[in-house]
Amino acid sequence: MCGIAGQINYSSHRPVREADLKSALFEMFHRGPDDEGVMTDRHCGLAMRRLSIIDIAGGHQPVFSEDRSLAVVLNGEIYNYRELRKELEPRHRFSTGSDTEVIVHLYEELGEGCLQKLNGMFAFALWDAKKQELFVARDRVGIKPLFYADLGGALYFASEIKALLSFPGMPREADPQALADYLSFYYVSSPRSIFRHIRRLPQGHFIKAGGGKAEVKPYWNFRFRPRKMSESEASERIESALLASVKRQLVSEVPLGVFLSSGLDSTAIVAMMARLGVRPKTYTIGYADGGTYNETAEARLVAEKYGTEHHDCLFGAADAAALLPAAVKGFAEPHGDWTYLALQRLSAVSRKDITVALTGAGGDELFAGYPTLTAAKVGRVYRYLPGPVKAALRAAAERLPVSTARLSLDFKIKSFARGAAFRPEIAHMKYKEILTDREIRALMPHLKHEDPFEVFAQHLPAVQDARLLDRLMYLDLNVFLPYCSLHAADLVTMFNSQEARVPFLDNEMLELAEEVPLSLKMKGFTTKHIIRKTLRHYLPEEILKMPKKGFTMPTAEWLKKELKGFFLDTLDAARRNNPDFCDYSFAEGLFRDHLEGRMDNTRKLTCLTSLFLWQKEYL
Length: 619
What we know:
This protein is an alpha+beta fold and 619 residues long.
C-alpha cells in the first residue's frame, strides 16, 4: 500500500525535477510512512511513499527489471503474486519477495496484456526506458485511486488530488460540470474531478504516454454473461469463491482485522475467516443515542457466534464537526456522504491494533443488494397508471409527515414518487438525487453545465442489451461504488496509514457475478437472495432476515441540535471568503426548512457544508 506520483514530459522531453516529485510525496506522507522512493530518467520521474505490508524488509520501490530498463511503483496489493511468481521464475531473476516485482516481469513478457493476469487492487506506473514510454494502470473496479493532468505535453499523475496540486503551475480552476454533478449526487465521478484540469483515470483503464502523445484506453469491463445454474450450484460456487478470495486477502506481514457492520457482506467475511481457522479482531461503529442507526447489537451477535476479539467505537456529532474540515482538505474535493467520517473514526481507533482491515464493500453491487432495485420493479407497474392516479399518489406522498428515522417510510415513498416518472435508468439515479436541477439553478444561477445524469448515461451503451435490473446494477458498479464508496474508504483509511481490502471485489468474485443469473440475485422483492441462501448456515438468523439498511448516521437530528452552529459558522465563513460563489440565502432557506421540520434536508445540507468548506480552502 502506497501513495504514488510521477511526471513525464512526453513532448518537450524537459528533465523532470526530483524536488517536484518529493513535494507531491510530502502531501501523501500518510499513505506511506515507512519508506520513500524516487527515480528520474531524463524527462520521466516516478515516486512513492510506502506502507509496508508484504516483504517489509525488501519491498523498497521503485522495483526494476534485471537490466534496469523497466521501473515500477505500485499502490495496492497483487493477491495472486505468488502464483504469478512461480510462472515467471523459470525465465526471470527476482531480487525481492514483493508483489510489486511480478508486474515488471509480466510486463516484459506481455506488455499491456499483463493487466489481464493481475488479481488485486492497484494503481501502478511503469517506465519503459527502451520505449521511452510511461504506462499507468488502475484495477478493474477502481479500488485504488489514480488522478492525472495532461497539460502542455506533460502528464502528471498521483494517488491523490492534493499531491497533484503541489506540482508547480498546476491550475486550480473549478470544473462547472463537476460542480453540477457534485450537487446532484454529492460526489464527483470519472472522468472528472472538481478541478477542470485534473481527471480521474477510470477503473479498468490505462494510460500510455510517450512519442509525443498520451492516450487513455480501457482493458476490462464487467459484462453480463449469465448461464443456467441451480440455486445449489450458485451457492456452492459463491461460497467457494468467497472463501478463496478471503484466503488470498489474508496474506499480510502485519496485523489485520474486519470492519464489521450488521450487513450480510462483512459478516460473511468473518464467517469465511472462521472456516480458515482465523479468529479476527472486529470493529463496529456505533452512535450514542443513535436509535435505529445503531448496528452494534447486531454486529455483536456475529462477534459472539465466531468468538472474535470485538471492539465497539462510538461516534457523535462533535466527532463529525472535528473531522470534517481536515477531511475536506485532505480529499481536496467535496464529498457529501458524511458516513466516511464515521469510517475514518473507526479506522483511527482500529489502527492501534491492525494495519489491514477487510470490508464488505461490493457485495450489493454484484448481487443486487440495493432497495432501489425493488423500487425499479414497483416502478414498472407505476408507469402504467393513469396520470391523475399518479398525480394523486405524488400529492399524498408529499403530505406524509417528515421523519428522520433511518430509511423511514416517508423517505422511501417520497424518493420513489419523485423518481418513478422518469425512464428506469434515470429514475434509478433520481432516487439518489441530492439537489434537483431547479435547486442547483437557484443556488448557483451562473453555473453553466449539461445534464448531470449524462454522467451515468455514458455507461449504458455497454449494457444496452442487458435486462433492466442488470443495467441498474451496472450503473451502481461503475459509478456509485468506485466514486462514492471506494474512493472515500481509501482516503479515510489511508489518512490513518491503514489499508482497506475488499474480498467481494476479487477477480474470481467479479467473474462469478457475471455468470450468476439475475433471477438468483433477486427473487421477487428479496434482494441478494442467493447470498442469503449461501450464508444461511453461517450467520445468525437475525442477520439473514434483516432488510438492507445502508451505512448511515443520525445526521438529521445532529443538524437540528449539536451541528446547528457548525453549519451556520461554515456558511458564514464561506460567504466572507467568496461572496459571489453562490446564493447563500438559498442554503439558509434549506436549513430553516430542516430545523422547522418541514423537510428532511439532511443530504442537501451535508452536501453544501462540504462544498463550502472546500471552496474556502481551495478557491
